[in-house]
Design brief:
disordered C terminus; binds zinc ion
Length: 311
């Protein structure tokens, strides 16, 4: 038996087709990523089956590394903080809605868990051990089917009353297209992958970027429109918070600099109240396990009673 306290936090990030996990050593000093992994999910993604996968991963990790000091679970949607049940989980079966998720996972694992929204987990990870490490105030954006985000100051996720950082739902056009949230003219209605591909007449956002690169004008117009919407939204965020850095990640962000530079240029064009060199836009660096790493970090340092612990 070892004398030292075992401070290993496990993060489990539930995605559309897999569960990504990360074991993070969270003793004193800088958090250290011990190991990451991935388990495929059955296409049905029934909540009971997914929870069984979480149980298998946890059992295997415990068998190799010992007991876990905390467990965080990332969900690609919204949930009720009080009940631990999903309230909005786009692209998942209806059975998830209202399912007693937290209680079921805790029963399966025999341990308390901390639920966190996946974009918030991403933001925490990139801010603490990723692209914005060492920066005081970072605003992170995840570009995917939806547009998620999070604001992290001095290593703490800012939640406000709970919903702070939902950057995809900043209004950027007075009478813009309908957004999935019920508002019109949101960033997501221009820059979500579905919006980009629909505007371009392409099967996917990736196909749209490829077509734009090959000179397809309609695809280029869809990319330009997404960039403008993001740039306008983030210029408003800059004026509100003046963050040290914006971190851009998620599937679409794999387009890389061809997306980053135009977004930065749009923000600089619109922010006239600060010198342009203060506007920094960088790529995420942690890759596909960022959400799992962030879920582990969140579980290691939850703020009791804070709504942030549940978003
Ligand atoms: Zn919206």
């Amino acid at each position: 038996m070892t004398e030292t306290a075992n401070r290993n936090a496990l993060g489990l990030d539930i995605g559309g087709s897999s569960v990504k996990w990360a074991l993070v050593h969270v003793d004193s000093g800088e958090p250290r990523i011990v190991r990451t992994g991935l388990e495929q999910l059955e296409p049905t993604r029934d909540p009971t089956d997914v929870i069984a996968v979480l149980g298998e991963i946890t059992r295997d990790v415990r068998a190799e590394y010992g007991e876990l000091s905390s467990v965080g679970v990332g969900l690609p949607g919204l949930f009720d903080a009080a009940t631990g049940s999903p309230t909005l989980l786009p692209n998942f079966p209806d059975a998830w809605h209202g399912f007693p998720f937290t209680a079921s996972v805790e029963a399966q694992l025999g341990q308390r868990i901390t639920l966190v929204n996946d974009a918030k987990a991403f933001s925490l990870a990139e801010s603490l051990v990723g692209a914005a490490a060492g920066r005081d105030l970072a605003v992170c954006v995840v570009l995917g089917t939806g547009v998620g985000g999070g604001v992290v100051q001095h290593g703490t996720l800012l939640a406000g009353q709970g919903s702070a950082g939902e950057l995809g739902h900043l209004t950027v056009e007075l009478d813009g297209p309908m957004c999935g949230c019920g508002n019109t003219g949101c960033v997501e209605a221009f820059a979500g992958s579905a919006a980009i591909s629909a505007y371009a007449g392409q099967p996917s956002a990736q196909a749209t970027f490829d077509a734009a690169r090959n000179g397809d004008r309609r695809a280029q117009a869809a990319v330009d429109r997404a960039v403008r919407a993001l740039g306008i939204g983030l210029s408003n965020v800059f004026i509100t918070l003046a963050p040290d850095v914006f971190v851009i990640g998620g599937g679409i962000a794999d387009a890389g600099d061809e997306l980053l530079e135009p977004i930065a240029a749009e923000i600089r064009r619109r922010v006239r109240v600060a010198p342009p060199e203060q506007i920094r836009v960088v790529n995420a660096v942690l890759g596909r396990h960022a959400g799992a790493i962030g879920a582990a970090l969140r579980s290691a340092d939850p703020i009791p009673g804070s709504p942030a612990a549940c978003r």
